Amino acid sequence: MDNTASLELPVHLLRPIVTKFNMIADSSNWNRFLSPPAESLGEGLLSEGQKEAIAFCTIIEDHTPRYIEDYRRRFPIDAPSGIERSLANRELFHFLVRWGLEEDRHAQALSMYQIQSGIARNLEEMEEELIRENIKDFDLGFSEPVQVFTYTFLQEKATQIYYQSLARVVREPTLKMLLLNLARDESRHFSFFADILDAFIAHHGPRILPLVVDVAVHYRMPLCSTLPDYARRAVRMAREAPGYSRKKPLELLAGHLAGWSKKMPDWQKEITDAVEEILQKNNLLPRTRHI
Ligand SMILES: [Fe+2]
Ligand SMILES: [Fe+2]
Fold first, then answer.
1. Which one of 38, 118, 137, 187 has the fewest CB atoms closer than 10 angstroms to its CB?
2. Superfamily of domain 38-281, CATH level 4
């Protein structure tokens, strides 16, 4: 394989990040099947907007097989990839299966909650609706590994903030508990992708910055082009979770990169320019700037 084709992480840098994630993950379990019986759920405590938000989140989480499939296609273990890349991709697989398990648990826990709480009345109908979305074409639209990881960095932070914000206002106790479990998992996922991004910067230096900026400038939520009525539903779901905004993860990414300019003063200009571009192109710069 042509090693100049894309910027990759060598296995010796990937391994400690994957191990750190799995060490915490192996001790971080919760049982999706141990929800209280339907009669103990306070269905009357759920607002219509919250019900819609949960249905929306279920669809996003239920796309897990496609997200994992996408990663498997991008990080194959096979002869054409060669020994070195396959070794790194094998290491990544330790993360991937655990991550997939947790995301799949999110999807199933939300689906089961919909049935238990009466948000969805019919399991077969709900499953058919979910699979109809699942079988649509899916492509993140970014080619470089660091871009895929940057995209997931943003996505994990978005879901973490969303579940935390929604949990704060939800009065139905079973849902509140479920949302807090989801938020904790998403927070661990985010930490993994933040570590990966740091490793890319440390290993490849400022040449990864334009790739990261490209993702931040073109960041869209998954399924935004395939899910019917996406824009209206996204606005309504955001309204249910005060404190959440689509742009929060982008601000956080900019702040994360800005932290690197202190650690790597030689690249201060490149990093500062990248941070400015992310903030400016997402309309996140304050109107009046004091220098
Ligand atoms: Fe999730
Ligand atoms: Fe996640």
1. 137
2. Ribonucleotide Reductase, subunit A (1.10.620.20)
Domain locations in the chain as residue ranges: 38-281
CA of 279 to the centre of ligand 1 (A): 26
Q: How is residue 89 written in tokens?
A: 């991709």
Report the 10 Å Cβ neighbour count for 243: 12
Q: Which residue, 116, 33, 106, 29, is CA-closest to 63?
A: 106
pLDDT in tens, 8-64: 999 999 999 999 999 999 999 999 998 666 667 877 899 999 999 999 999 999 999
Expressed in angstroms and rounded, the spacing between residue 58 Cα and the centre of ligand 1 is: 9
pTM across the whole model: 0.93
Average pLDDT, stretch 106-130?
95
Question: Ligand 1 mean position to 106 CA, how many Å?
Answer: 5
Query: What separation in Å is there between the alpha carbon of 166 and the centre of ligand 1?
Result: 14
What is the C-alpha to C-alpha distance for residues 176 and 164, in angstroms, rounded to an integer? Answer: 9
CA 201 to chain centre: 20
Q: Is 246 helix (H, G, I), strand (E, B) or coil?
A: coil
Please report where in the chains the tokens 């790597």 appear, as a residue: 264
